[in-house]
Amino acid sequence: MLEGVNALFYTSDLSSNECVIEGQEVKHITKVLRKQEGDAIFLTDGKGNIAQTTIRKVGKQQLVLEPKEVTKVPRIEPQVTLAFSVLKQPSRMEWMVEKATEFGVRAFQPLLSAHCIRSHFNAKRLESVALSAMKQSLQCYCPEIYPVQSFESFVTSDLDSIRLMAYTPERKKSFQSTWPALSNTNEIIAIIGPEGGFTKDEAKLASDNGFSWVSLGPNRLRAESASLAIVQQINVFSKLS
């Protein structure tokens, strides 16, 4: 969370002397926040940059703003890429992307695994959800959503990071024992399965390619809940010395 920032808005470019905001955000700024000409608001480009700006002109559908000094916000580590199997219900994927973005996930990698029921999704919609969640949670980095890959091609690719897979042949109560050391780790890839879980062959393939099987506890979780559970556990275990 950014110190002293209570609301954050988005623009794709902070490099010019003038920024323009259009659409629904104009109504929110002028009607809800009651901002007027001369007032200050904060903008981010979703790439780590933030600027305090001054409203120079208020129109019905447009705001013209003048940025002041642009500041680069450092990323919080570890940087997590959440690889998720495409879910049957789009609304559950949207919820997962929204909440995982709030937790600070760096990127999302959609996967097609053996038990996936759906093979397509609305990538633009997920990008919009991620952008909205970034602003709501007062972050300056909008997570990337990569093109969909097959499970096999992803886990067998050259991945230079700690690799985790939410999978245990038997659910264990002492789930901490399944986790590798994460402190002082910069990048982590975490894989979550679809509604039907991973097959034994998929789990073995991932393990053979450097993925550690980790438990999320004794209870069976929905796929989208498991996504948040693994991100939260990463946040916890990576802070332990």
CATH topology heading of the largest domain: Alpha/beta knot
- Uncertain segments of ≥5 residues (pLDDT<50)? none
Q: What's the main sheet like? A: 7 strands, parallel
* CATH class group of the largest domain: Alpha Beta
Give the terminus-to-terminus CA distance.
23 Å
Overall spatial form: elongated
Quote the beta fraction.
Answer: 25-35%
Structural class: alpha/beta
Secondary-structure arrangement, i.e. CATH architecture of the largest domain = 3-Layer(aba) Sandwich
Topology pattern, helix = H, strand = E: EEHEEEEHEHEEHEEHEH
How many whole angstroms does the radius of gyration measure? Answer: 20 Å
Can you walk through the features of this model?
This protein is an alpha/beta fold. It folds into 2 domains: 8-72, Beta Barrel (Ribosomal Protein L25, Chain P), CATH 2.40.240.20; 79-237, Alpha/beta knot (3-Layer(aba) Sandwich), CATH 3.40.1280.10. The protein is 27% helix and 27% strand. The protein contains 6 helices and 12 strands. The chain has helices at 24-32, 90-102, 123-136, 151-155, 200-208, 223-237; strands at residues 8-10, 19-22, 40-44, 49-58, 62-72, 79-85, 107-112, 144-145, 149-150, 162-166, 187-192, 212-214. Strands 6, 7, 8, 9, 10, 11 and 12 form a 7-stranded parallel sheet that branches. A 5-stranded mixed sheet has the order 1-3-4-5-2. Helix 2 links the parallel strand 6 (79-85) and strand 7 (107-112). Helix 2 runs parallel beside helix 6. The longest helix is centred in the C-terminal third of the chain and has 15 residues, at 223-237. The chain is elongated and about 60 Å long.
